[in-house]
């Protein structure tokens, strides 16, 4: 099968359990057909894993944009940029980003490549873990983004440099893809899977103020995601069919703020920028520096 998509992830140094989960995810990627796979890494001291070609293209980082020490994490818009550039160079019409502990099934690739869309986003199924609970779909976020290479190049300016491993970015990116493109969301079928493990904070201390700033700048998109998520939960609990959930997404993800909404948003943005500037003037707190995504 001639490859039609570039699939990329970003691995990082972590503990034994995290390394085991990353290895399982990498093995699943390397077993896929119809795609080429890469590990998107920093230009400086990239993290490499056996069997996964390294694409050393990232120059920005969480430390650079926040001015605070801590784990050095990539910026999601730069990761997507790197994949889009590489996909275009290989004449691949699609690129895909997946978190480093997501196990892919071949039907996920087949579903993406058969979609009549500009983007396909996939929610994960959580399984296993210490709690021993049954498998369940994760509705609160998205772990896999497949985007038309040409579409990303035309609309890249809509996406901000959120920090990998922090909250909000996947919700905002999903809302943008729906509002400005033809997006398909798959959160009913277990096409990608994720072993349960202890979760860190939604926003780490080093990146919290920066993430809050971007979330405020993108508040109109983030609020659409929150509305969608709330309605999705009600529909899922009521046993609504896929068609109703799809119609709900289409009705919610419309970016057409009125004049009053734009004025209120501008005021929120101004306050957020002032708050963030004050936080930067307080200076960075002492802390370790290491290359670790989450």
Biggest sheet details: 7 strands, mixed
Strand order of the largest sheet: 3-2-1-4-9-6-10
How many individual helices? 10
Radius of gyration: 19 Å
Structural class: alpha/beta
Estimate the helix proportion, in percent.
40-55%
Q: Looking at the structure, what is the overall shape?
A: globular
The average pLDDT is 92
Overview features:
alpha/beta, 7-stranded mixed β-sheet, 4-stranded mixed β-sheet, globular
Structure description:
The structure is a single chain. The protein is α/β, with parallel strands linked by helices and 294 residues long. It is built from 10 helices and 11 strands. Residues 286-291 have low confidence and may be disordered. Helix content is 43%, strand content 16%. α1 links the parallel β1 (5-9) and β2. The chain starts with a strand and ends in a 13-residue tail after the last helix. A 7-stranded mixed beta sheet has the order 3-2-1-4-9-6-10, with helices on both faces. Strands 5-11-7-8 form a 4-stranded mixed beta sheet.
């Amino acid at each position: 099968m001639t490859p039609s998509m570039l699939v990329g992830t970003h691995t990082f140094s972590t503990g034994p359990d995290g390394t085991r989960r990353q290895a399982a995810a990498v093995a699943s990627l390397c077993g896929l057909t119809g795609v080429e796979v890469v590990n998107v890494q920093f230009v400086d001291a990239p993290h490499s894993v056996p069997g996964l070609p390294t694409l050393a293209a990232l120059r920005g980082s969480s430390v650079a944009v926040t001015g605070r020490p801590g784990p050095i994490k990539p910026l999601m818009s730069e990761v997507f940029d790197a994949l889009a550039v590489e996909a275009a160079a290989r004449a691949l019409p699609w690129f895909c980003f997946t978190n480093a502990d997501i196990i892919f099934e071949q039907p996920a690739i087949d579903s993406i490549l058969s979609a009549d869309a500009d983007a396909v986003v996939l929610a994960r199924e959580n399984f296993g873990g210490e709690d021993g609970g049954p498998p369940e779909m994760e509705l609160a976020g998205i772990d896999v983004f497949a985007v038309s290479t040409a579409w990303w190049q035309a609309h890249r300016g809509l996406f901000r440099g959120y920090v990998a491993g922090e909250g909000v970015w996947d919700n905002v990116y999903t809302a943008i893809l729906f509002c400005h493109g033809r997006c398909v969301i798959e959160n009913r079928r277990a096409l990608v899977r994720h072993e349960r493990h202890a979760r860190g904070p939604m926003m780490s201390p080093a990146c919290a103020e920066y993430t809050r700033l971007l979330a405020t700048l993108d508040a109109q998109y983030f609020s659409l995601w929150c509305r969608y998520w709330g309605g999705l939960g009600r529909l899922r609990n009521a046993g609504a069919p896929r068609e109703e959930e799809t119609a709900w997404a289409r009705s919610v993800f419309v970016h057409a703020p009125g004049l009053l909404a734009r004025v209120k948003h501008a005021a929120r943005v101004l306050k957020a920028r002032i708050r963030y500037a004050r936080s930067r003037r307080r200076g960075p707190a002492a802390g370790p520096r290491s290359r670790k995504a989450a």
